[in-house]
Amino acid sequence: MRFLSRKTGRDGGSAGETGRSGVDTTPVPLYQAKAEFFRMLGHPVRIRVLELLQAGPMPVRDLLAAIEIEPSSLSQQLAVLRRSGIVTATRGGSTVVYALAGGDVGDLMRAARRILTELLAGRQDLLAELTDTPAADTRTTETPAPATAARA
């Protein structure tokens, strides 16, 4: 994973050892690795791909149909997820099938949905989308908390 080492600056200078790829091999603090991980998740298309893959492996053509974006845009976002190690890709003939690399990713997506449901209790428009959008959340049957006055 790319979260475990520092990138060097433009001048190539760094406090740690630099390998052939120009990446500083000095380990980063855990909090920084977590920040880079969450930054990698910080794109709506990547989140949607991860939500869809919770139901199981999907060919790129099905992801394209579900997300409705340009193939080049989807390819770019899938490459980011693949490089990070959060998804895997297998080729069968001309078909490329993507899958979550582990079950923890699905758990993370379900946890994010629960947290957002709680945080958005006062935002009925977004809350309705969270509770009405079919996601592969088949293991959770929680209902959102009753709406309260909007939080400051």
From TrEMBL:
Name the source's superkingdom. Answer: Bacteria
Q: Which CDD domains match?
A: HTH_ARSR
The molecular function GO annotations come to:
DNA binding; DNA-binding transcription factor activity
UniProt xrefs under SMART domains: HTH_ARSR
Q: Which UniProt keywords apply?
A: DNA-binding, Transcription, Transcription regulation
Domain HTH arsR-type intervals = 26-120
Q: Any keyword Transcription? A: yes
Q: Where is this region: Disordered?
A: 1-25, 131-152
| KW Cytoplasm (keyword) present | no
Q: What is this protein called?
A: ArsR family transcriptional regulator
What organism does the record attribute this protein to?
Actinacidiphila alni
